[in-house]
Design a protein that fits this description.
With about 220 residues, this protein is an alpha+beta fold. The protein has one domain. The chain is about 25% helix and about 40% strand. The chain is built from one helix and nine strands; from the N terminus they run H-E-E-E-E-E-E-E-E-E. It has a seven-stranded antiparallel beta sheet, with helices on one face. It has a two-stranded antiparallel ribbon with strand order 1-2. Strand 8 and strand 9 form a beta hairpin. The longest helix has about 55 residues.
């Protein structure tokens, strides 16, 4: 009997079993990889949002610290113990642009969450003349959130900048310490502003700004 040699198997293509194995392995690799990529991009967005909010916190903290350090109006009509010149009320809360006769801004300016007042002496005249430096922190709507503005009126000039974005206005608080009454004639030693800022993709970011008065 004559035997016909079997034709050598063609290596091209693959069998059904091989295809099923490849599909199974691909699923094992691709699904976790896809989940990892989704998680990565989510974390990237959240990290970028928190960095942006953290930057605002640093900027606004630096401004408030400087403004509170200088706060203080002297009562030149009153003599204190030992010939010292006492302070008079130098902080205003929920104040209009012209509160106490001290004008900074216009009637269109939102009420300030806090206004910090300080003596501003002009030594270019003789005798030196005294004016009042006013720093007002107010919230302005920006979509569903607000922006924290720092409005300064001093030396005959006015500047208005945004120091914090994405502020939740419902969380904004003002507090003072030593004494706790912000508008007291005994000017508080410490002023604190606290609020939360929020961006899509990130949890609410709590921000606390604190300043300490230097004038004694």
């Amino acid at each position: 009997m004559r035997l016909t040699p079997r034709t050598a198997r063609d290596d091209a293509g693959f069998t059904l079993i091989e295809l099923l194995i490849v599909v199974a392995i691909t699923a094992v690799i691709v699904v976790p990889l896809g989940n990892a990529l989704i998680l990565y991009f989510r974390n990237t967005d959240a990290t970028a949002a928190r960095m942006s909010l953290s930057h605002d916190a640093q900027i606004s903290a630096a401004y408030l610290a400087r403004d509170v350090a200088a706060v203080g109006l002297r009562d030149l009509d009153t003599a204190g113990p030992g010939g010292t010149i006492p302070f008079k009320a130098s902080i205003q809360v929920n104040a209009a642009f012209d509160a106490g006769g001290q004008v900074c801004g216009t009637s269109a300016t939102p009420a300030a969450k806090i206004r910090l007042l300080a003596d501003d002496w002009d030594a270019s005249t003789s005798p030196a003349t005294r004016d009042t430096r006013i720093v007002a922190y107010y919230l302005a709507p920006a979509g569903t959130v607000s922006e924290l503005h720092r409005l300064v009126c001093a030396d005959g000039a006015t500047t208005d900048i945004v120091v914090a974005h994405h502020v939740d206005p419902a969380t904004f608080t003002v507090s003072c310490a030593s004494p706790t009454t912000c508008e007291s004639a005994s000017v508080p030693q410490t002023v604190t502003l606290a609020f939360s800022a929020t961006l899509p993709g990130a949890d609410p970011y709590p921000i606390t700004l604190t300043g300490h008065r230097r004038q004694q």
